[in-house]
Amino acid sequence: MFKSIVVSLLEWQAKRLLRKHKPRVVAITGSIGKTSTKLFTATVLGQHWRVLAHEGNHNTEVTIPLSLFNIELPDSLKSPLAWLAVLRETGRRLKQPFEYDVVVLELGTDKPGDIARFGKYLRADIGVVTAVVPEHMEFFKTIEAVAQEELTVVGFSQFSLLNIDDIDVGFRKNFNPGQIGTYGLGNMAQYHYLVDSFEPVQGFTGKFVAPEFGERPVALKLLGEHNIKSAVAAGAIAVKLGLGADEVALAMQKIQPVPGRMQLLRGLKESTLIDDTYNSSPTAAVAALQTLYSFDTEQRIAILGSMNELGDYSEKAHQEVGLACDPAKLEWVITIGEEAEKYLAPAALSRGNQVKSFTSPLEAGAFAHKVLRPHAVVLAKGSQNRIFAEEALKMLLHTTEDEHKLVRQSPDWLAIKQSQFENLQTSAPPAASQLKL
To answer: Which are the contacts of 430, defined by CB distance < 8 A and separation ≥ 6?
Structure first.
């Protein structure tokens, strides 16, 4: 009840803020790719406007209102006094000038109805749906329920952009064509990117295509086709908000990789590390594997962690990723976590891969360190709690000075990881129990 009261008050204050200052609002939903799309959009729009976009994963009923006021969560979430202080501060900031022209928000959902709640106080100029793929299936049960949830944003947006590649046509057919636009990789999408060439380190050269002006050359210093989609979404948003062709093209070339999302890092023995450890889903994991295969090298290693919150779909999802592991292109498949060992590893084995499974990223990283050969390319991909595949990569970095480039390296996160790893080690073999964070 206390939380409900606090959230209602925060929503009320957020509604007052938006009505008073009238910034343009971009609201981004979707099963995958929200954070990259948000940050890429902030980069592109930020070349011309003052943009508010929280760098962290602030996408809940509590953190969205706070992000509008640029206020962090209080240290004590259960303290009424702490929340009273937060509410006093929102009231104070409501009376001050608003420093931003555009607000870019990432709207998350854990269960049906979460996105609709944001619509109680948000009216977006542009809504974006990045994908409709299995997520939180213990609550949604069916992909149709996921689609209904994520596409709710269309109802409180003046115009919406949908990723045509990752949203089934059946979920799009009920919308008025004038209400939505499409983006993606191929020319079936209104906004898309034509790839001319790709180099794993340099990224993509090609052309951004928009119906308003046709083609414009754009170089994207990114890795992975799913990052191209996020960049195209950012460009399409800029076009819909009024930027011209050359302005959009130049701004898109400022986009940089996001930590934990297909970021290249230097590894030991002149190896290359692909850090895609922020989170995982079957669609994203398969896409990451395809990117790994594009590297010309004698040794490729895939470190694949369990994918959380998939409910009854977990077995099929992990098998899908395991079957995408190509023994002709991978020397090792290394898994982290129970679900990956139970479902992904057998599927990868059935295709003829060499597979090694571990309960923690510390064990997985130690094994990868042992088998690593010069000039190898290593992909790490997995979910968060109990997996934390970034800690496996930490053991393969060229220098410890690059540890800050990995995700979840704050003292709070490191404490959470240490606690979880200690619990895992109570049942681990003696060798694993010697590994420390």
So the answer is: none
Give the phi and the psi of residue 307 in degrees, each rounded to 5: -105, 115
Query: What gap in Å lies between CA 174 and CA 147, rounded to an integer?
Result: 12
Per DSSP, the residues of 357-414 read EESSHHHHHHHHHHH--TT-EEEEE--TTTT-THHHHHTTBS-GGGGGGSSS-SHHHH
Question: Which among 316, 312, 323 has a CA at the least distance from the CA of 345?
Answer: 323
The reported pTM is 0.87
Under a CB-based contact definition with an 8 Å cutoff, are residues 280 and 314 in contact? no
Q: Which amino acid is at 78?
A: K
**CA dist., res. 216 & res. 66, Å (int):** 38
| CA neighbours closer than 13 Å in the CB half-sphere of residue 260 | 23
Domains of the chain: 2-252 (3.40.1190.10), 263-433 (3.90.190.20)
Identify the band that residue 134 occupies on the pLDDT scale cut at 50, 70 and 90.
confident
Residue 84: CB partners within 8 Å, gap ≥ 6?
Answer: none
Measured distance CA(228)–CA(209) in Å, rounded: 12
Q: How far apart are CA 293 and CA 273, in angstroms?
A: 13
**What confidence tier does 425 reach under pLDDT thresholds 50, 70, 90?**
low
**348, 322 Cβ separation under 8 angstroms:** yes
| Dist. CA 276–CA 384, nearest whole Å | 11
- Residues facing residue 27 across a β-bridge: 105, 127
Residue pLDDT, tens place only, 221-236:
999 888 999 999 999 9
In this structure, are strands 300-305 and 377-381 parallel, antiparallel, or unpaired? parallel
Q: Report in angstroms the alpha-carbon separations of 68 from 14, 51, 100, 108, 307.
A: 7, 11, 10, 15, 31
Please list, in sequence order, all residues whose beta carbon lies within 8 angstroms of the beta carbon of residue 30, skipping any fewer than 6 positions away: 37, 128, 129, 130, 131, 132, 150, 163, 166
- Under DSSP, the state recorded for 295 is S
**Tell me, what's the pLDDT at 4?**
87
Residue 286 is predicted with a pLDDT of 95
Runs of H (alpha helix) within 1-141 = 2-21, 34-45, 63-68, 80-94, 114-118, 137-140
Distance, in Å, from the CA atom of 355 to the CA atom of 47, rounded to the nearest integer, reads 46
Place of tokens 């602030």: 58
- What distance separates the 2 farthest-apart alpha carbons in the chain? 64
DSSP reduced 3-state for 143: helix
DSSP string of 189-244, one letter each residue:
SSEEEEEEEEETTTEEEEEEEETTTEEEEEEE---SHHHHHHHHHHHHHHHHTT--
